[in-house]
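Fold this sequence, please.
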Amino acid sequence: MSSEVAEAMSPEGMGVHPDRQVLVLDLSRSMLAPLPDSSGGSPRQKIEIARSAVLRIVQNAEKAGTPFGLVTFTDTPRVVVPLGEIRPENLPYVKSLVDMLTPTGRSAIWDALATGADLLRDASGAVHGTIVLVTDGWDNCSTRFEPLGADANPTPLSRKDLFGYLLPPGSNLNLRVIGIGNGAQRDKGVDSDRMNLFVSGLSSRALFLGAAPSFSYEEVDTGADLYTQMVNAFVDVEDAPRPAVSNLHPEDLAKSAAQAARALKQSEEHSAIHRIARTSTPPLEADMPYSEAPTLEVDVLSASQAPPANLRERYGPLARVVESYLKRDFTKASGELNRCRMSLPPVTYSYWQAKIAFGNGDVVEAARALIIAWSATESIPIQSRIRVTRRLALLQAQMQKDPETEILLQFVEETEAKIRSAPPEMQTRIMDLFERLMELRGTYQLTRIPGAEDPAVAAQKHEGAVEEIFGLLQDIRLDNTAGDAAIDGALDFLEICLAEMR
């Protein structure tokens, strides 16, 4: 991902406004163009990726009860979803509106931003909330507004000043711009220089009013980056750790397992799961730079929890990072991380950069660091890579507010920790069950992709794979003669997941 960020803000300013959020989405004809896949897969249309991201965003908004609005633009802006709470009863209707989003025409970006601001405007005229603009071009047909001073071209006197309209006195606006591609010509990608000037001009307006500016510009050039940045833009940092799966009531355990299975059944919509699949293949080089697994973290840590026992003895310089992180002293944690950087594998350093930034509410910096961490996994030996990618995927799921994937990965992390006292052969068999469960997403997808395989053959193949795992699971139950509760709990969770995968 390439990016240039124009910002004049405090670190706290990067947080998304917690109350009201508006997405302003480009639907110009250029959104029909394909965007490359970073893993070497088939390119997908920009609009197809954007629709998937919007569906995830509205699902998050419904779960969190966050007021959300959607404005799209071609030659003119259109309010597709008025600002308000998305409720379970109207979620299907909102999803149907998103499914029908179709690109056409040109790009009235400035008029669309003004429309988004109108959704966030209070009775006094001030604008309060967050706008996320996603575009792959530059304004070429707005008739009402122009960002004065942001463009080298003369400003028609008939247009209004967009800066003043977005930021009247008393406003508290966050604006994040996600640009797709890069190009010096109109309609050939976002013009970095002019977009940075636009964001800088808006920041200057905020400083003139005595407000803390909170505006940023980010570029993406692959489908995975577009999806991730769009979803991340609407994520609120969640401080409270999710309860341990093993501590759930049986009914809640069943619901959690069903949620986890959805992450496998819809893996294309759960990008963290998709990343595990892409990064778990053996590397090409025979000689690897690490002789042991990188230390990503001490178990699965959440800010504000108590530090694990013997932290300093077990983890050396990284322990100081962990201690500061658990105390929510993110500035000190970042300083400690930089001090021990040379003694850490690259993936560990980038992972903790992402974790600290996310804990501090800086989702943009967290996303940058996590992307670097994913790239660093390519140099890790395959025997260590699977566990490392699970940890990265868990952090990504937390950042994207993807509870299905988070539950699934939290379960396997908890299981791996709890069965350490079991015989090694039993540990291997249980973890093999998890890997086989992950592989079921492949045979499940074959039953859903038109033309991929004869439907009857695909269904039979998938059912056979499910039955094989059921058989292995029951064998482990019979062999658990000691009645180990941790093993029984893991098998219960896996069995519910398997039933949902049928």
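Residues 1-18, 236-241, 278-293 have pLDDT under 50 and may be disordered. Residues 455-479 form the longest helix (25 residues).
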